[in-house]
Design brief:
The complex is a heterodimer.
Chain A: E1 5-11, H1 18-26, E2 34-40, H2 46-51, E3 57-62, H3 67-77, E4 82-85, E5 91-92, H4 96-106, E6 110-121, E7 134-137, E8 144-146, H5 147-153, H6 165-175, E9 179-193, H7 199-205, H8 207-229
Parallel strand pairs in A: 1-2, 1-4, 2-3, 6-9
Antiparallel strand pairs in A: 4-8, 5-9, 6-7, 6-8
Chain B: E1 8-10, E2 15-20, E3 23-28, E4 33-38, H1 41-50, H2 54-64, H3 69-81, E5 85-87, E6 109-113, H4 117-122, E7 138-139
Antiparallel strand pairs in B: 1-5, 2-3, 3-4, 4-6
Classes of the chains: A alpha/beta, B alpha+beta.
Amino acid sequence: MTLAYSVVIPAYNAAATIDESIASILAQTVPAQEIVVVDDGSTDGTASVVSRIKGPITVISQENRGPGSATSAGLRHVTTPLVATLDADDVWLPAKIARQIAALDMDPGTSGIFSLAKLFADGASPDPHAEGPVRRLWTRTTLLFRTDAAREVGDMADLPGNLGEVIDWLARSRDLGHRHAMVEEVLAMRRIRAGSLSSKLDAERARGYLAAVRNSIDRKKARAEKSSTEPNC
Amino acid sequence: MPALDVSYTINAPDVVAEDFNGQTVILNLADGRYFNLEGIATPIWNNLVRGCTPQSIFDSIGRQSPELTDEAVRFIDRLIDLALIRRQADVGAGVAIDPQGEWAGGAPRIDIFDDLQELIFADPIHDVDEQLGWPAPRIAQ
């Protein structure tokens, strides 16, 4: 039996791309029960673009708080047994959810499943047959989770620079003993803008990642402390 | 044995570090490994990346906690082996920066973790320009 799923799209000033993202959900061979767009205080008319699209779409509007907060608001709204997430500038291939649900069905012990994604340049059409680097993508765009497991992990916490929140959330999930799996097939397309960053910017932007790994270290220390104080009998 | 009278610096841009209320966390973006410092590893690290020479650090430790000097040498060697620091080319002889802080907290230790490598690689640094919105276009690697 195919389980029902919803999709959460956190969006901030994504008017230029979100229609393409939603179209790729509506083109799934297994239709979504609900698409939840969380408009995180956009000022570019994102909600108005979404309102013109026909489909089972719910828009939640909130003040600008960050991608983690917006994703969490969507996760709290979901009522289906499975939940997927998608960045508002990426797209899925039509068989994405069907392949992932089939893989989850074969492995009831898996909490979350991901897929490969091909990168495409901003401004180009997301053509899966075009040449492009392929990544094993453990991120929001490929994530399909059992909703109960996602609720157990809790909210996605925003980190400095709006980076690293998915790493932090998935690390917390792993630490709860959740198993994640990868469908080794390109099922999504990820938008990339060419450019370069100075080392100063790298250090600044890496602060979210540093916060995520600090949280991971703190959890390891807490576990070690707990196991050392538990009676040895 | 590290070069004693040269200054070292953090191996940017691959390596980034932050002090979280006295807890130093280091991340190597090039390989996704991350590191936790314990004991006097944090003051050694802080003084190294300020430009203090290893010799000045060993001298300072030797005055307060001589029993930790050998381990401090091994710790700095480890930082070099792990490519977390590199020689600072533009510092000439005669530039002396006195180490600061207390050599308390026990032997230096560095914990190395690689359990988030795939997650860190999957989430390359994004462009989060306010005008572009987020989730925003990523920078090609």
